[in-house]
Structures are given as C-alpha cells and as structure tokens.
What does this fold into?
Amino acid sequence: MIITTTETLDGYEIVEYLDIIIGCGDDPEDALKELKEIGETLKADAIVGVKIFNEILDRELTYYAYGTAVKIKKRE
It folds into this structure.
C-alpha cells in the first residue's frame, strides 16, 4: 500500500475515493499503522493527503493520522 502526504501519485490515476480515514496512537508510527490497517480493511490501494497531528487529552498525548483511502491504477 502506498501512503503519501501528496494528493496525487506520479504514474497512477485515482479511480475511486473510498473514504476519509483516521488512525490514532501513542506515537506517530502507531497512528500510521492504524491508518494503514483501516485502509487495508477498505481494500484501498493507497492513502493520499496524509497528515499527522497530536493533541493532549486527559493529560495524555495522542497522535492522529488522517488521509483519504483510494483505489488507483497505473497510467499507460
């Protein structure tokens, strides 16, 4: 699966937008791992426009990763 901060993928065409998805965790890697797992559940080929941010809730730091799960095909 391709995970990128960009909105497009060189050499690929986005053929279907599946959903906006959000993963969270104790650190950025956990948030991205959950994001990828959600994308795999949706059978996405890629997640584009990924952003990571954090927030303090109840004195605990939580990281969030969000992006758009998409289906892609290679350009000819």
